[in-house]
Amino acid sequence: MLQLEALSLRLGTFSLSADLSVKAGSRVALIGPSGAGKSTLLGAIAGFVPAVRGRILWHGIDFAGQAPGQRPLSIIFQDNNLFPHLSVAQNVGLGLRPDLRLSPRQRAEVAQVLERVGLAAFATRKPSDLSGGQQSRVALARVLLRARPILLLDEPFAALGPALRAEMLTLVEDLAGDGGLTVLMVTHDPQDALRLCPETILVDEGHALPPGPTAVLLADPPPALRRYLGK
Ligand SMILES: Nc1ncnc2c1ncn2[C@@H]1O[C@H](COP(=O)(O)OP(=O)(O)OP(=O)(O)O)[C@@H](O)[C@H]1O
């Protein structure tokens, strides 16, 4: 279980509170108006935004004092955080060793995971020689290799067209299911939330609410969400 316990965050004049928990192995969307604090909340979980008050716990262990790289999570942003000067295989290999001194066994793991996301034939290419969807797959491959139990997605597929986005969400669902990952995904698209995430956290007016069933939330949105969705 991931617990945000009486959490309070502040960035300049912006503040956000959260008191909620997310079940291990579940997939949860974060939805809310632009500037509501969705990325800030992921940033706090990842360790980039310090908490003013409260705690973040994973299976009862406090994240405080754990640097971002030590936390049991991976994060993918919209730009996929790929290094342009490294090949696809190297970008993925970074998930295992930042200095890229991979053992033969680790190289084999990289090859295996590239196969898993359908990029076996692209290992030596640079990210710029790939389509947007393929770049997203590289980022997912790296996450898979890191094998951290929490996956944070910050509008990862926003730049992709609808069909490709649906395909990527299915891939995330498969990979998350296989690995038993806990997924938190920021999205502006209610359909994406419905597709991947049975539950949704509504972030609005300085609060992140506890997760509720996505279908129920979208079928009968509270006023704040109604405004945001333009319903
Ligand atoms: N470094 C910063 N210093 C001060 N304020 C910041 C900083 N970063 C973000 N903010 C403010 O914090 C608020 C929350 O931003 P955040 O990016 O978390 O929102 P969001 O819900 O993810 O928005 P969007 O959907 O547009 O990506 C915004 O009002 C933003 O202007």
Automatic annotation (TrEMBL):
InterPro entries in alphabetical order: AAA+_ATPase (IPR003593), ABC_SmlMolc_Importer (IPR050093), ABC_transporter-like_ATP-bd (IPR003439), ABC_transporter-like_CS (IPR017871), P-loop_NTPase (IPR027417)
Entry annotated with the keyword Nucleotide-binding: yes
Keyword Cell cycle annotated: no
Signal peptide range in chain numbering: none
Gene Ontology MF annotations: ATP binding
One Pfam match: ABC_tran
Keywords on record: ATP-binding, Cell inner membrane, Cell membrane, Membrane, Nucleotide-binding, Translocase, Transport
Positions of the ABC transporter domain: 2-230
Protein name: ATP-binding cassette domain-containing protein
Organism of derivation: Plastorhodobacter daqingensis
